[in-house]
Amino acid sequence: MIFSLFFTVENYEELWQWSVDNIAAFWGEVWSYTGIVASTPYEQVVDEKLTPGDVPEWFKGARLNYAENLLKFDDDHCAIIATGEAHEIKKVTYRELRVMVQKCAAAFRASGVVKGDRIVGTPYVSFFIFIFLFLSGACSHFAPHLLYPPIP
Question: Is the per-residue pLDDT at 145 higher than 80?
Fold first, then answer.
């Protein structure tokens, strides 16, 4: 049985139906369940009167840092499972990912990269998420805790 403040369901089919019938409540529950960190909470999940074709605004008013949310863990649980054309599976833990981002941030800082600089590159496909995390926030002023202490 799955229970929440807003619903009780017995199986996947009931959960799916509830999520389709109660889109805003469902995604509000997902936000809460996943523990998303936001500097400003959302005012409204989504305007359910709008259609997907109207491109509704999701989590209106919320301000959050994508990298902060994905790098908030520092343990040996799996953060990324990646594979490429050769079907070789690569697993990266949250701790390993954090160290990779810290090393990358330290290297860019040592090279003189500062807030506002543009960084261009062709990421190795299996580490696209790592590169995205770094570029989306680890080097920004919103996530300074990810940059210190510098890793030599």
Answer: no
pTM above 0.85, yes or no: no
Q: How far is CA 32 from CA 27, 37, 98, in A?
A: 9, 9, 24
Domain count, the chain: 2
pLDDT digits (tens, 9 = 90+) for 27-38: 999 999 889 999
CA 27 and chain centroid, separation: 15
Q: Give domain status of residue 134, yes or no.
A: yes
How far is it, in rounded angstroms, from Cα 8 to Cα 85? 42
How far apart are alpha carbons 82 and 74 in whole angstroms?
Answer: 19
- Structural domain of 9: 2-64
